[in-house]
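Table S2 (continued). Query chain:
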Amino acid sequence: MVEAQQVGGRKVDGRKARGEKKRRAIIEATLRVIERDGIAGVTHRSVAREAGVPTTAPTYYYATLDDLLIATLLWSAEVLCDDMLQIVASGGSAREIAGVIARAVDENRGRTLAEYELYLLAGRRPELKAAARRWLDLAVEAVRPADPVAFRAFLAAIDGLLLQGLIADVAPTGDELEPIVSFLIRGRDDVTATAGEE
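Corresponding output:
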C-alpha cells in the first residue's frame, strides 16, 4: 500500500517526498564536498558520507558521477542563483546587486567557488554543458530583457566580478562594487527612463 499524506489540500506520496528530500541532501552534500575538496574529491562514497546516507544512496539516485554533477549544476542554477535573479528581474538597484556579489565572494565564498568549479568543468565535459548554461536560460526567462545583447553583456560582467572577487586577496565590499555595477546597469536605467517619458 502506498503511503500518502495531505499537503496543501492534495495527497502526496510519502515515499516520493522522502526520495526528493534524500536527493536534495545528496546534491547539497555534493556542493559541500566540492567546497572542501574540489571536484576531485567528489565520489559516491564521499558524498554519501557527507550527506549522512547509506553509501548506496547516491548511486541509486545518480548512477554516474556525471549524473550527480549535472543534477548539482541544475540545482545550483535554479536555487542558489535565485537571490541574484530576483533582484535583477525586479530592476534592483546597483547597491542591491553589489551587495549580492559581495556576499557571494565573502561570506558565501566556498559555495560560489564550488559553483564556478562545476561551471568551468563543463568546458572539459560536454555532457555538463547544457546544465552549466541553465543559469543564462533562467536569467533570460526571469528578466525578459528588452535588449538581450546588453543583458548577456551584463551577465558576463557579473561573472567577471564574481571571479575577480574570488581570487582577490581581500574580498571586495558592496560599497566598492556599487560604482562598477552602477556603470553596468546605467544603460538599463537609461532605457527605462526613456520608455517612461514616452
